[in-house]
What does this fold into?
Amino acid sequence: MWVWDVVCGFFAHLVSRSNPLWLYYPLCVVVAIVYKATKCDEPRDYAFVLIGPAAAL
Amino acid sequence: MTAPGRPDRSPFAALVLGWILPGAGHAYAGLWGKAALFFVLITALLVAGLVIGRGTVILVRAPSEGNEVRSELRLWYAAQVCAGGPAIALTPISQYIAAEGTIDWADPLHEMGTLYTAVAGFLNLLVMMDAYTRIAYPRRPQQEDQEEDA
It folds into this structure.
C-alpha cells in the first residue's frame, strides 16, 4: 500500500500550489505558440496549442 | 495567408530590427499580426521572469557586496540579451534592485525567473531567424503551387 501512497504523494506534490513547477506550464505554452507561429501562417494552426480540438471545428 | 514577398527589403535589416524590438523584423516584412504576437509574448515572458525572480534575474554581473562572484551569470545574460531592447532596458533596473539587497541564489523562484528571461531570449532568436528567412526566401502563395501542379 505504501507504493500507492508514494505515487499519490508524488502527483499531489506536482499539482500543489507551492510547487514552482506550475511556472513551467505557462512557459511551455508560450514556447509552443511562438514555435508554431514561426512555422505556420494560419492563426488557427497555432491557436490549436491553446484551445485544442475546438480550433479544428 | 502567406507571407508577402518583399524582394526590395533586406533580410539583415529584419534580423537587426527583430533584435532591437521583438517582432519588429516581422513588422518590417509586413506581417503585422505575427509582429504583435511575438512582441507581446516575448516581452511578457521577460517581465514575468523579472517579477517571478523578484527583479534580480537580468544581471550582467553579481552585485559585489553580500553576493559571491558568479561567472555563470554571463552565460545567462548572453541568452537574455538575445531578447534585445527590452532585455537591455531591464538590465539596469535588475542591477539596481540586486544592489539594494542580497540575492537568494538557491531560491527556486529566482531560478525560474532566470529561466523565463533566458527562454525569452532564445525565442527571440528563433523569431529573428524566421523574419530573416521570410524575406530572404519568400513563400509562394498556395494557389500558384496548385496551378503549377495541375
